[in-house]
């Protein structure tokens, strides 16, 4: 089923040109896009409504993108995240994968690659309202129980 209300795509990117480029392409593909240029603002945004896909830049002016991801996971959020970065450092990639990202796209990237990753990740998000109650930041575990991908244990 498509149509109805699709989960939004949150674009966290501090470069206005790249943010405009990505959001334009995503909207053209029928996505609802929200743009942010600060990591802390996104962490606030997803606390109330985690039903979204996050496109995460790593080099941000306030806190590092990986720190955004760490805090998300520490708060129990399993929301899908696709890293979109110019950093191809293997260490960054390994940490992002360990934290359960849905994709890791290195700039400059073919637009088709980004759109395909977004499409797959958005399709995997359960429809809003399928989960009773709003999972707040204080919720110890989600209603679905621990759903962390294997390999997350240290
Ligand atoms: Ca950046």
Helical fraction: 25-40%
Low-confidence region ranges: none
**Taking all residues together, what is the mean pLDDT?**
86
- What composes the largest sheet? 5 strands, parallel
Assembly status: single chain
User: How many helix segments?
Assistant: 5
Question: What is the CA-based Rg, rounded?
Answer: 15 Å
What form results from the Cα inertia axes?
Answer: globular
The H/E string reads EHEHEHEHEH
Strand content: 5-15%
**What is the end-to-end distance?**
38 Å
The secondary structure category is alpha/beta
How many individual β-strands? 5
Bound molecules: calcium ion
Keywords summarizing the entry:
154 residues, alpha/beta, 5-stranded parallel β-sheet, binds calcium ion
How is the topology of this model organized?
Blueprint: E1 9-12, H1 16-28, E2 33-36, H2 39-48, E3 53-56, H3 65-74, E4 81-85, H4 90-98, E5 103-106, H5 111-123
Parallel strand pairs: 1-2, 1-3, 3-4, 4-5
Helix pairs in contact: 2-3
Bound molecules: calcium ion.
Question: Can you put this structure into words, describing what you see?
Answer:
This protein has 154 residues and is α/β, with parallel strands linked by helices. The protein is built from 5 helices and 5 strands. It has helices at residues 16-28, 39-48, 65-74, 90-98, 111-123, and strands spanning 9-12, 33-36, 53-56, 81-85, 103-106. Strands 2-1-3-4-5 form a 5-stranded parallel sheet, sandwiched between helices. The protein is globular and about 40 Å long. The mean pLDDT is 86. Bound molecules: calcium ion. The site of calcium ion has 5 residues, from loops.
């Amino acid at each position: 089923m498509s149509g109805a209300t699709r989960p939004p795509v949150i674009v966290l990117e501090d470069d206005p040109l790249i943010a405009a480029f990505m959001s334009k392409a995503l909207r053209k593909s029928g996505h609802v896009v929200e743009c942010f240029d600060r990591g802390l603002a996104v962490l606030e945004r997803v606390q109330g409504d985690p039903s979204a896909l996050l496109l995460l830049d790593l080099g941000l002016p306030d806190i590092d993108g990986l720190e955004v991801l760490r805090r998300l996971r520490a708060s129990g959020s399993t929301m899908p995240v696709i890293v979109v970065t110019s950093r191809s450092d293997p260490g960054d990639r390994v940490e992002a994968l360990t934290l359960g990202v849905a994709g890791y796209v290195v700039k400059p990237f073919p637009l088709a690659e980004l759109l395909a990753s977004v499409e797959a990740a958005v399709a995997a998000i359960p429809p809003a309202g399928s989960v009773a109650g709003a999972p707040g930041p204080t919720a110890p575990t989600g209603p679905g129980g621990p759903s962390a991908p294997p390999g997350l244990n240290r």
